[in-house]
Protein backbone atom coordinates (compact mmCIF):
# COMPACT_ATOMS: atom_id res chain seq x y z
CA UNK A 1 0.00 0.00 0.00
CA UNK A 2 1.25 3.46 -0.93
CA UNK A 3 0.66 6.60 1.09
CA UNK A 4 1.02 9.79 -0.85
CA UNK A 5 2.91 12.62 0.74
CA UNK A 6 4.34 15.68 -0.94
CA UNK A 7 7.97 15.65 0.03
CA UNK A 8 6.87 15.21 3.66
CA UNK A 9 6.08 18.88 4.12
CA UNK A 10 3.87 19.84 7.04
CA UNK A 11 1.33 21.72 4.93
CA UNK A 12 0.10 18.67 3.00
CA UNK A 13 -3.71 18.76 2.96
CA UNK A 14 -4.43 15.75 0.75
CA UNK A 15 -3.02 12.28 0.12
CA UNK A 16 -3.87 9.21 -1.97
CA UNK A 17 -4.03 5.85 -0.18
CA UNK A 18 -4.22 2.24 -1.36
CA UNK A 19 -3.25 2.69 -5.01
CA UNK A 20 -0.47 1.21 -7.15
CA UNK A 21 1.63 4.38 -6.87
CA UNK A 22 1.77 7.63 -4.94
CA UNK A 23 -0.40 9.22 -7.65
CA UNK A 24 -3.36 6.85 -7.39
CA UNK A 25 -5.62 5.92 -4.51
CA UNK A 26 -8.41 6.86 -2.14
CA UNK A 27 -8.58 10.61 -1.56
CA UNK A 28 -7.95 11.62 2.04
CA UNK A 29 -8.03 15.18 3.33
CA UNK A 30 -6.41 16.57 6.49
CA UNK A 31 -8.71 18.84 8.51
CA UNK A 32 -8.25 19.95 12.11
CA UNK A 33 -5.45 17.45 12.56
CA UNK A 34 -7.44 14.42 11.39
CA UNK A 35 -7.38 12.59 8.08
CA UNK A 36 -10.78 11.86 6.54
CA UNK A 37 -12.27 10.84 3.19
CA UNK A 38 -14.36 12.44 0.45
CA UNK A 39 -17.82 11.18 -0.54
CA UNK A 40 -18.09 10.02 -4.16
CA UNK A 41 -21.40 11.81 -4.77
CA UNK A 42 -20.69 14.41 -7.45
CA UNK A 43 -17.01 13.44 -7.69
CA UNK A 44 -15.73 14.18 -11.21
CA UNK A 45 -12.65 14.92 -13.32
CA UNK A 46 -12.63 18.64 -12.45
CA UNK A 47 -12.28 17.66 -8.79
CA UNK A 48 -9.67 15.00 -9.61
CA UNK A 49 -7.64 17.57 -11.58
CA UNK A 50 -7.21 19.68 -8.43
CA UNK A 51 -5.93 16.69 -6.45
CA UNK A 52 -3.46 15.68 -9.19
CA UNK A 53 -2.10 19.22 -9.50
CA UNK A 54 -1.89 19.69 -5.73
CA UNK A 55 0.22 16.54 -5.49
CA UNK A 56 2.37 17.33 -8.55
CA UNK A 57 1.07 14.18 -10.23
CA UNK A 58 0.27 15.34 -13.76
CA UNK A 59 -3.17 15.14 -15.35
CA UNK A 60 -6.22 13.23 -14.03
CA UNK A 61 -6.75 9.86 -15.71
CA UNK A 62 -9.89 8.86 -13.80
CA UNK A 63 -12.21 10.05 -11.03
CA UNK A 64 -13.51 7.04 -9.12
CA UNK A 65 -16.07 6.46 -6.38
CA UNK A 66 -17.74 3.55 -4.58
CA UNK A 67 -14.55 2.87 -2.58
CA UNK A 68 -12.62 1.69 -5.64
CA UNK A 69 -9.41 1.74 -3.56
CA UNK A 70 -11.02 0.33 -0.43
CA UNK A 71 -12.99 1.95 2.35
CA UNK A 72 -11.37 4.53 4.58
CA UNK A 73 -12.09 5.23 8.22
CA UNK A 74 -12.62 8.27 10.35
CA UNK A 75 -14.67 11.29 9.30
CA UNK A 76 -16.07 11.85 5.81
CA UNK A 77 -15.01 15.44 5.49
CA UNK A 78 -16.45 16.52 2.14
CA UNK A 79 -19.61 15.70 0.18
CA UNK A 80 -20.89 17.02 -3.17
CA UNK A 81 -17.67 18.88 -3.82
CA UNK A 82 -17.66 21.35 -6.72
CA UNK A 83 -14.23 22.36 -8.05
CA UNK A 84 -13.80 24.55 -11.10
CA UNK A 85 -10.53 22.71 -11.74
CA UNK A 86 -8.33 25.78 -11.23
CA UNK A 87 -8.08 25.67 -7.43
CA UNK A 88 -4.62 25.19 -5.91
CA UNK A 89 -5.92 22.83 -3.21
CA UNK A 90 -8.98 20.62 -2.79
CA UNK A 91 -9.89 22.42 0.44
CA UNK A 92 -10.59 25.58 -1.60
CA UNK A 93 -13.36 23.90 -3.61
CA UNK A 94 -17.00 24.42 -2.73
CA UNK A 95 -18.93 21.71 -0.92
CA UNK A 96 -21.91 21.25 1.38
CA UNK A 97 -19.73 22.07 4.36
CA UNK A 98 -17.05 20.27 6.33
CA UNK A 99 -18.26 17.07 7.93
CA UNK A 100 -21.82 17.48 6.64
CA UNK A 101 -22.93 14.41 4.74
CA UNK A 102 -25.43 11.62 4.30
CA UNK A 103 -22.72 9.29 3.04
CA UNK A 104 -20.73 6.28 4.23
CA UNK A 105 -17.31 4.88 3.43
CA UNK A 106 -18.70 2.55 0.76
CA UNK A 107 -18.78 5.67 -1.48
CA UNK A 108 -15.25 6.97 -0.76
CA UNK A 109 -13.77 8.87 -3.73
CA UNK A 110 -10.54 7.92 -5.49
CA UNK A 111 -8.24 9.37 -8.13
CA UNK A 112 -5.80 8.05 -10.71
CA UNK A 113 -3.33 10.67 -11.95
CA UNK A 114 -1.13 10.25 -15.01
CA UNK A 115 2.40 10.26 -13.61
CA UNK A 116 3.71 11.27 -17.04
CA UNK A 117 3.91 14.67 -18.72
CA UNK A 118 5.17 16.29 -21.90
CA UNK A 119 7.22 19.45 -21.38
CA UNK A 120 8.32 22.21 -23.73
CA UNK A 121 5.72 21.69 -26.44
CA UNK A 122 1.95 21.53 -26.15
CA UNK A 123 -0.40 19.41 -24.08
CA UNK A 124 0.15 16.48 -26.45
CA UNK A 125 3.77 17.03 -27.48
CA UNK A 126 7.04 17.70 -25.71
CA UNK A 127 9.94 16.24 -23.76
CA UNK A 128 8.79 13.15 -21.87
CA UNK A 129 9.08 13.14 -18.09
CA UNK A 130 8.03 10.28 -15.79
CA UNK A 131 7.23 10.60 -12.10
CA UNK A 132 9.32 8.16 -10.04
CA UNK A 133 9.78 8.19 -6.26
CA UNK A 134 8.26 11.69 -5.99
CA UNK A 135 10.65 13.09 -8.63
CA UNK A 136 10.04 13.95 -12.29
CA UNK A 137 12.68 12.29 -14.48
CA UNK A 138 13.69 12.69 -18.12
CA UNK A 139 13.79 9.57 -20.28
CA UNK A 140 16.70 8.38 -22.43
CA UNK A 141 15.79 8.04 -26.12
CA UNK A 142 17.41 4.58 -26.26
CA UNK A 143 15.00 3.33 -23.58
CA UNK A 144 11.77 4.32 -25.36
CA UNK A 145 10.00 3.07 -28.50
CA UNK A 146 6.72 3.25 -30.43
CA UNK A 147 4.84 0.82 -28.16
CA UNK A 148 5.80 2.90 -25.14
CA UNK A 149 4.58 6.00 -26.99
CA UNK A 150 1.18 4.35 -27.56
CA UNK A 151 0.74 4.07 -23.80
CA UNK A 152 1.87 7.61 -22.98
CA UNK A 153 -0.42 9.19 -25.59
CA UNK A 154 -3.36 7.13 -24.33
CA UNK A 155 -2.61 7.99 -20.71
CA UNK A 156 -2.56 11.71 -21.50
CA UNK A 157 -5.90 11.44 -23.35
CA UNK A 158 -4.20 12.42 -26.61
CA UNK A 159 -4.48 10.85 -30.04
CA UNK A 160 -2.16 8.20 -31.45
CA UNK A 161 1.60 8.83 -31.41
CA UNK A 162 2.79 10.71 -34.48
CA UNK A 163 6.54 10.79 -33.84
CA UNK A 164 9.10 9.68 -31.26
CA UNK A 165 12.01 12.14 -31.28
CA UNK A 166 15.46 11.69 -29.75
CA UNK A 167 18.43 14.00 -29.22
CA UNK A 168 16.59 16.47 -26.97
CA UNK A 169 14.28 17.67 -29.75
CA UNK A 170 12.22 19.62 -27.18
CA UNK A 171 15.24 20.93 -25.27
CA UNK A 172 17.35 19.49 -22.50
CA UNK A 173 15.71 18.74 -19.17
CA UNK A 174 17.12 19.66 -15.79
CA UNK A 175 15.85 16.58 -13.97
CA UNK A 176 17.43 13.26 -13.10
CA UNK A 177 17.65 10.72 -15.95
CA UNK A 178 15.44 7.64 -16.15
CA UNK A 179 17.74 5.13 -17.81
CA UNK A 180 15.82 1.88 -17.41
CA UNK A 181 14.43 0.23 -20.53
CA UNK A 182 10.64 0.66 -20.71
CA UNK A 183 8.96 -2.43 -22.15
CA UNK A 184 5.29 -1.74 -22.86
CA UNK A 185 3.16 -4.11 -24.90
CA UNK A 186 1.28 -1.04 -26.14
CA UNK A 187 -2.14 -1.81 -24.66
CA UNK A 188 -1.48 -0.72 -21.07
CA UNK A 189 -3.55 2.16 -19.68
CA UNK A 190 -0.59 3.76 -17.88
CA UNK A 191 3.19 3.80 -18.32
CA UNK A 192 3.69 2.69 -14.70
CA UNK A 193 1.96 -0.59 -15.53
CA UNK A 194 4.66 -1.44 -18.11
CA UNK A 195 7.60 -3.62 -17.15
CA UNK A 196 11.11 -2.19 -17.00
CA UNK A 197 14.59 -3.65 -17.12
CA UNK A 198 18.12 -2.27 -16.66
CA UNK A 199 19.32 -0.47 -19.76
CA UNK A 200 22.68 -1.08 -21.43
CA UNK A 201 22.89 2.68 -22.10
CA UNK A 202 24.72 3.74 -18.95
CA UNK A 203 26.13 6.96 -20.41
CA UNK A 204 22.81 8.59 -21.25
CA UNK A 205 22.66 12.36 -20.72
CA UNK A 206 20.19 15.18 -21.37
CA UNK A 207 21.55 15.30 -24.91
CA UNK A 208 19.52 12.10 -25.35
CA UNK A 209 16.22 13.25 -23.81
CA UNK A 210 13.33 11.65 -25.66
CA UNK A 211 10.45 13.72 -27.03
CA UNK A 212 7.03 12.67 -28.21
CA UNK A 213 4.39 14.08 -30.53
CA UNK A 214 0.88 12.68 -30.09
CA UNK A 215 -2.03 13.58 -32.36
CA UNK A 216 -4.22 16.36 -31.01
CA UNK A 217 -6.55 15.08 -28.36
CA UNK A 218 -10.22 14.85 -29.29
CA UNK A 219 -12.37 14.39 -26.21
CA UNK A 220 -15.81 14.87 -27.73
CA UNK A 221 -17.62 14.13 -30.99
CA UNK A 222 -21.14 14.43 -32.42
CA UNK A 223 -22.61 11.29 -34.01
CA UNK A 224 -25.69 10.63 -36.13
CA UNK A 225 -26.41 14.19 -37.25
CA UNK A 226 -26.37 15.84 -40.66
CA UNK A 227 -22.86 17.23 -40.15
CA UNK A 228 -19.92 17.04 -37.75
CA UNK A 229 -21.53 19.95 -35.82
CA UNK A 230 -24.79 18.17 -34.97
CA UNK A 231 -25.49 14.83 -33.36
CA UNK A 232 -25.39 12.68 -30.26
CA UNK A 233 -22.72 13.85 -27.82
CA UNK A 234 -20.03 11.23 -27.19
CA UNK A 235 -17.07 11.66 -24.84
CA UNK A 236 -13.74 9.81 -24.99
CA UNK A 237 -12.45 8.59 -21.64
CA UNK A 238 -9.64 6.10 -21.04
CA UNK A 239 -9.75 5.04 -24.67
CA UNK A 240 -13.50 4.35 -24.81
CA UNK A 241 -16.29 6.47 -26.30
CA UNK A 242 -19.42 6.87 -24.19
CA UNK A 243 -22.50 9.08 -24.00
CA UNK A 244 -23.97 11.79 -21.76
CA UNK A 245 -27.28 11.52 -19.87
CA UNK A 246 -29.82 14.30 -20.50
CA UNK A 247 -30.58 14.94 -16.83
CA UNK A 248 -29.70 18.63 -16.39
CA UNK A 249 -28.48 19.05 -19.98
CA UNK A 250 -28.89 22.64 -21.19
CA UNK A 251 -27.65 25.30 -23.62
CA UNK A 252 -24.71 26.25 -21.41
CA UNK A 253 -23.43 22.68 -21.59
CA UNK A 254 -24.07 22.59 -25.34
CA UNK A 255 -22.07 25.82 -25.74
CA UNK A 256 -18.96 24.10 -24.38
CA UNK A 257 -19.34 21.25 -26.87
CA UNK A 258 -19.83 23.63 -29.83
CA UNK A 259 -16.79 25.70 -28.88
CA UNK A 260 -14.63 22.62 -28.27
CA UNK A 261 -15.46 21.37 -31.78
CA UNK A 262 -15.03 24.83 -33.35
CA UNK A 263 -18.67 24.67 -34.42
CA UNK A 264 -19.90 28.12 -33.49
CA UNK A 265 -22.80 28.75 -31.11
CA UNK A 266 -25.36 26.27 -29.76
CA UNK A 267 -28.68 26.21 -31.61
CA UNK A 268 -30.31 23.46 -29.54
CA UNK A 269 -29.56 21.17 -26.59
CA UNK A 270 -31.48 17.93 -27.04
CA UNK A 271 -32.30 14.90 -24.92
CA UNK A 272 -34.24 11.65 -25.19
CA UNK A 273 -31.77 10.17 -27.71
CA UNK A 274 -32.87 12.63 -30.41
CA UNK A 275 -30.02 11.42 -32.63
CA UNK A 276 -30.47 7.77 -31.70
CA UNK A 277 -29.31 5.72 -28.73
CA UNK A 278 -25.59 5.22 -28.29
CA UNK A 279 -23.78 2.24 -26.79
CA UNK A 280 -21.04 1.66 -24.27
CA UNK A 281 -20.69 3.54 -20.99
CA UNK A 282 -22.77 6.57 -20.04
CA UNK A 283 -19.88 8.69 -18.84
CA UNK A 284 -21.61 11.82 -17.55
CA UNK A 285 -24.93 12.72 -15.93
CA UNK A 286 -26.28 15.93 -14.42
CA UNK A 287 -23.61 17.91 -16.27
CA UNK A 288 -23.23 21.50 -15.06
CA UNK A 289 -20.90 23.67 -17.12
CA UNK A 290 -20.29 27.34 -16.41
CA UNK A 291 -19.84 27.85 -20.15
CA UNK A 292 -16.18 28.86 -19.94
CA UNK A 293 -14.66 25.36 -19.89
CA UNK A 294 -12.31 24.40 -22.73
CA UNK A 295 -13.64 20.83 -22.83
CA UNK A 296 -16.82 19.10 -21.68
CA UNK A 297 -14.73 16.76 -19.52
CA UNK A 298 -13.82 19.73 -17.30
CA UNK A 299 -17.46 20.44 -16.46
CA UNK A 300 -18.97 19.27 -13.20
CA UNK A 301 -21.27 16.27 -13.10
CA UNK A 302 -22.90 13.87 -10.68
CA UNK A 303 -19.80 11.69 -10.89
CA UNK A 304 -17.76 10.11 -13.65
CA UNK A 305 -19.28 6.91 -15.02
CA UNK A 306 -22.11 6.85 -12.47
CA UNK A 307 -25.12 4.71 -13.32
CA UNK A 308 -28.79 5.72 -12.96
CA UNK A 309 -29.45 6.46 -16.64
CA UNK A 310 -29.89 4.55 -19.89
CA UNK A 311 -29.25 5.25 -23.57
CA UNK A 312 -32.85 6.36 -24.20
CA UNK A 313 -31.75 9.63 -22.53
CA UNK A 314 -28.57 10.26 -24.54
CA UNK A 315 -28.03 13.96 -25.20
CA UNK A 316 -27.51 15.70 -28.52
CA UNK A 317 -26.39 19.10 -29.75
CA UNK A 318 -27.01 21.22 -32.81
CA UNK A 319 -24.38 23.93 -33.31
CA UNK A 320 -24.52 26.89 -35.69
CA UNK A 321 -21.37 25.73 -37.53
CA UNK A 322 -21.20 23.44 -40.54
TrEMBL record:
Xref: Pfam families: SRCR
Gene Ontology cellular component terms for the protein in this record: membrane
PROSITE patterns: SRCR_2
SMART domains noted in UniProt: SR (SM00202)
S-S bonds: 39-103, 52-113, 83-93, 140-204, 153-214, 184-194, 245-309, 258-319, 289-299
Domain SRCR: 14-114, 116-215, 220-320
Signal peptide: none
Keyword Transmembrane: no
Protein name, per record: SRCR domain-containing protein
Organism expressing this protein natively: Cyprinus carpio
